[in-house]
TrEMBL record:
It is found in: Membrane. InterPro entries: Glu/Gly-bd. This is Ionotropic glutamate receptor L-glutamate and glycine-binding domain-containing protein. It is a multi-pass membrane protein. Keywords: Glycoprotein, Ion channel, Ion transport, Ligand-gated ion channel, Membrane, Receptor, Transmembrane, Transmembrane helix, Transport. GO terms for cellular component: membrane. It comes from Rotaria magnacalcarata. Residues 27-72 form the Ionotropic glutamate receptor L-glutamate and glycine-binding domain.
């Protein structure tokens, strides 16, 4: 719904856990060879943006790599 204002949208995602599905696609999403926990398992440009947004907007996220490695359907 695009009629909601910015403040309303922010409140809706605060303290939520979002599921993010993606494919491995360097340099945007890559497996971190030195990962120690689920929050640093992936790295890359898109992951950096996601981490920054989650801090600024107070939400958590889980990343799931799609099994067929194909964008959208």
């Amino acid at each position: 719904n695009f009629t909601k204002d910015y403040e309303t949208r922010i409140k809706e995602i605060q303290n939520q856990t979002l599921k993010v599905t993606t494919v491995i696609e360097p340099p945007y999403v890559m497996l971190n060879p030195n990962w120690t926990n689920s929050t640093d398992k992936y790295m890359g440009f898109c992951i950096d943006i996601l981490l920054d947004l989650s801090e600024r907007l107070s939400f958590a996220f889980e990343i799931e790599i799609v099994k067929d490695e194909i964008f959208g359907k």
